[in-house]
Amino acid sequence: MISKEAANPLTALSPLNDQQLATLAQTAAELSPQQLAWISGYFWGLSQTPTAAAVAQATGDISLNAHSTPAPKVTLIYASQTGNAKGVAQEVATFLNQHNIENQVVAAGDYKGKNLAKETYVVLVASTHGEGEAPDDAVELYEFMQSKKAPKLEQLNYAVIGLGDSSYEFFCQTGKDFDAFFKRLGAKAFVPRIDCDVDYSADISTWQGQALEQIQQALTTSAQVVPLPISHSCAQAINYSKQNPFSASLNVQQKITGRNSSKDVRHIEIDLEGSGLRYEPGDSLGIWYQNDPELVSQLLSTLGLDGETLVDVDGETLSLATALQHHYEITAANPLFVTKYAELSQSKRLLKLITNKDKLRQYAAETQIV
């Protein structure tokens, strides 16, 4: 006679007990295929290293007290079109790790909306695409939170970081929308939403301090859970960002379209050795450029300004010429620039123009700064 347990070969051969199997099955049911694939590799890697207890004893990085009350975990969800939101989420994760606060970073496209009902702290970092639209990987979550399937979220403490460009009409619209969705579902903002412009480094630093204060208050009644040690290469990869780029060498740059083709497509190989970075499909490549010195001189001459005048740029004292060449966009006008210049110059023609958004956008698109 065969028992029910023996009838299932997976259960019979498993080194896990019934409770562990049930926990594993429940967790797996909530994960996407991509997350399951990652976990399979992660667990395999753990199996090739010393036991968790040995690692904890050797490094002092992990608390294995099974009776301690876990601290609130912060889930960082990023909705990114070009990678900026992902970079900000990773930057915040690094900051939380430095303060021994458990967290996880997940793409909006890999996150199941129903899991919001199980979260305590969520930080959503969202860029805005097109005419105020959510990034492609966030559309499913965006629509879910507006649907009847969305759960009540009275237990949830949330924060929203919106990324955008104030020269566009729908500035940080996706972040504003997600903020409204959270409020409608009963969630509480533990810090106010911030809408970040193109240069957002200082805003993120200020926000991190405010968020940390609120989260640490919740930790006063909970035991802190320190994250698992991160490999050296992973830690380095997180530290490189738009504000702290890795200087790589260009090994190969070859045109791969025909001589008579109207398109110019290039095969490029970049040496990332020593960075811990891996360039993968879906990643975006940023090019840091300098403005033409002649254009800087022309702008200064037109405005009657001295290029040697000292100005403050993010806490650093620079000459006006250096600031214009290395830190500001002076090659194309935008609605915000036209608006600010109209207010500064008090030009009657421009002041009238900026009252009409359609004409303002058209004028900015067709007009150079100099």
From TrEMBL:
UniProt domain Flavodoxin-like: residue ranges: 74-212
High-level lineage: Bacteria, Pseudomonadati, Pseudomonadota, Gammaproteobacteria, Vibrionales
Name of the protein: Flavodoxin domain-containing protein
Cofactor: FMN; FAD
Cellular component annotations (GO), alphabetically ordered: cytosol
Domain of life per record: Bacteria
Keyword set, alphabetical order: Electron transport, FAD, Flavoprotein, FMN, NADP, Oxidoreductase, Transport
GO molecular function, a single term: flavin adenine dinucleotide binding
